[in-house]
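Protein entry
_____________
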Amino acid sequence: MARIVAIDFGGKRTGVAATDELQIIASPVDTVDTSKLMDFFKNYLFTENVSDLVVGLPLKFSGETNDIEIEIKKFIEKFSAEYPNIKIHRENEMFTSKMASRAMVEGGMKKKKRQEKGMIDKVSAVIILQSFLSHKL
C-alpha cells in the first residue's frame, strides 16, 4: 500500500503528516514554508509512495470557508496538474489548532518544545489525517 499524506495549509507555514504504508498510523512529517510546498512534495514524492493527499478544509461556524481557501484551491490545482494520480480529499479542520495545542500539553510536551514554530502545524496535520482515516475505514 501507499502512504496517505495530509496538510494543514497556512499562509506562512504548512504542517505535513503521513501514514505508515499500511495506512494505520498518522505521524508528523515536517513543517514547510508554504511558498516552498511544491518543492517539498517534489522531493518527498520522489522517495515515498503516496496514493492520497488530504487537505484541511478551513470552515467557519457559519459553514463558509476562511479566506485562506482561495490559496488552498490554487495549491490543489497546481498539485493536481503535477501529480494527477494522487487522489485529493478535503477534511474539516475546524478546531484542529486548539486540539493540537491541548494534545501537546496533555501529552507532556515541554513548554519550550510546544512553542517551536510549526509544532502546532504538524500536530494539526496529524489530527486532520486521523480524522480522515477514522471515517475512511
About this structure: The longest strand covers residues 26-33.
